[in-house]
Amino acid sequence: MLSNEKRDPAFFALMAKVLREPDSRARILALALYLLDGRLLTTVVFPLYDPILPIARDISTAAYALILVLLALLATWRPQVFCERTFTVTAIIASVVGFILIIGGSLIGSAGVLLIGTCTVHFSRSWVVVMTGVSFSNLDLKRIAICVLYATILFCVLVIVFSLLPFQIGLGVFLLLPTVVLVMIRPHVSGLFSQIRTLEVPANRAITMPSSYLPFTHQIFLCWFLFQIVNGYSLSFGEENGTPLVTLFAIVPPLLILLWMLLTQRPFNPDRLFYIAILLVTIGLMLAPSAHVLTHGVINNILSLGVVIADMVMWFVLAALSSRNRLGAVGVIAWGRSLSIIGIIVGAGLGRLANFFFVEETFGVSLITMVIAIALLAYVLFFLKDFSFSETIGNVLPDDEVISHIGNAQDLDDRSALIAQYYQLTPREAEVLALLARGRNSNYIKDELVVSRNTVKAHVKHIYQKLNVHTHQEVIDIVEGELLR
User: Fold this and answer.
1) What's the pLDDT tens digit per position in 379-412?
2) Domain at 400-480, CATH from 3.30.559.10, 3.30.465.10, 1.10.10.10, 3.40.225.10
3) What is the pLDDT of residue 295?
4) What is the C-alpha separation between 110 and 380, in angstroms, rounded?
5) Closest by alpha carbon to 322, among 147, 142, 136, 79?
6) DSSP conformation class of 386
């Protein structure tokens, strides 16, 4: 697993290669744009609510969390409802209708219209985050780490850029982002939802295969809930007119991690990064009562440094868990994000309470930050003492229902077709896979499919990437069932 990775001379080349891969670039951009969408919601859209109904932001965020909880429960108990095409089209329509209602509600001063609009938008955003997270499920762990890092850097750059632009531009971009992300990422996930709908209910599978499905009470989910309380606190502590302070230093941690990965030629260690994040947010919390000396901006920067590292680790872990068992990916992404949102709601409430006490007295700020810091440290010391993200990821086993179907298929073409479905290959890639499984070379495939040599090379390259193999023989081994076992 990643924590035990040794120096890999090929890793530097992989980091450059990822940027040249269209599929990887799509995932990087999709994740960065989803993160930007959340930032624009906080800095551009929510301020529209304050003159009408300041509590609307908390109500709408709670609705967002509830929608994600519902999606997680459906993925666990009623996966057959997930018609990807229907959900995606509905989400695109909801993003447009919701945006219109938000603007209309702010113009006429209607709190009810605002709430309906923002809840509608949040349905769209919930499907966007599920689609984005699930899209990472057919990548290997190294590519996931690289993609998440690049996406975080791009997001930080976009935050800086949009902080300098008029808010009207931010509103326009906010309208377009859900549609752009869904259209971009849909080709990478549609096949997975077809599988999810036809297989046995994950809740039943979890009984016989507990190593393949993490329970909703697992340490990973509780851990993110507690850490997102700190995130919510950092967003609201020192906010001006309901708008969080923009920190330009959030880009520093991912850049340093990128430099470390380039120098060491190996992926980041999620466990080590998590403890670095704990250290940074603890320092920020300890300094919070001194905001009258250091200013809210300095403290918010320190907290943000820890939060951006933790968020990066969270996205890596959720994506890695999804890649280990793709049939449980929807539930993992939806549940993990829902608890994160609930944590942000709790933390934001504490942050605003601290802002109130900061005006009245410093004792209140000290008490609130002390409670948060002690709770976080106590959880880490007593409950995460022997816990490892890397080991947890490695201990999750793929659900073998699809693999057993492949192993039981006697006909080579049937096995190839099942593998193509499992790894979400395109129809043309599935044809190439069937020929590769029979030992055919590129010249034969070129003549058989009546395509150019470069086209064959491109299809073979994509098949290797999706199956996480490097040679023709490994492809044959997969089809014959050796690597699957």
Assistant:
1) 777 777 778 888 888 888 776 544 444 444 446 6
2) 1.10.10.10
3) 57
4) 45
5) 136
6) T
